[in-house]
Amino acid sequence: MIDWLSSTAFTAFGVGTSWAEVLGFLTGLVNVGLLVVRHIANWPVGILNVLLLMLVFWSAGLYADAGLQIVYVILGFYGWWAWLYGGERHTELRVRSTTRREWLWLAVAGLLLTGGLYLFLEHLTGSTVPLADALTTALSLLATYGQTRKLVESWWLWIAADLIYIPLYGYKDLWLTAILYVAFLTLCVFGLRSWRAARSQV
After folding, report:
1. How many CA atoms lie within 13 A of 185 on its CB side?
2. pLDDT digit string (tens) for 65-121?
């Protein structure tokens, strides 16, 4: 199965695109689309998506991104549970704003994650983009955590990450994934608007 997923599905921009990247593209679009409308099925689809992208990123030498997918699987199961039972008295979780205390925690965690991952990638791997890889990894983790808690502002973190991911994947010749992240960026804008509207209804 891994050999087939790693094989070339087609060639775009002079670079072979693997089946894992094609399926990652499709499941990624479905996942974020479901997330925008706050459908619980986004979590199982998202878990499948990150398993596919793990293979893509490892093959491209984006080691932090590949490792990040393991954390995404864990967060995927947590988010699935939290959306169903993470509210008051184990009820469905509601959309809300990020508190000042949460922002402070997220900022500290972001700095520590970015710094630690950068040092790891710079000195212990063959990464050619250690800072960009570390920063996007940190932003993505924080954004995903925010979405497991249905925090509206998590979409801003995704928007920041996507603006770095798009040129990064182009630089790594992952053109289909770069196009996917352009679509993600667009969906993030819709997600932000949708979740803001849902928050105002609470």
Report:
1. 15
2. 788 788 889 999 999 999 988 867 677 888 999 999 999 999 999 999 999 999 998
Question: Which of 57, 66, 39 shows the shortest CA–CA distance to 147?
Answer: 39
DSSP-based three-state secondary structure for 142: helix
Residue 142's nearest CA partner among 159, 130, 164, 157 is 157
Instruction: State pTM to two decimals.
Output: 0.84
Tokens 């950068």 locate to 118
Tokens at residue 154, please?
A: 């998590």
Long-range contacts from 128-135, C-beta under 8 angstroms, 24+ separation: 128/61, 129/62, 129/168, 129/171, 129/172, 132/164, 132/168, 133/62, 133/63, 133/64, 133/65, 133/168, 134/64, 135/164
Task: Please give the Cα distance from 180 to 104 (Å, whole number).
Answer: 31
- The residue assigned the tokens 């984006």 is 62
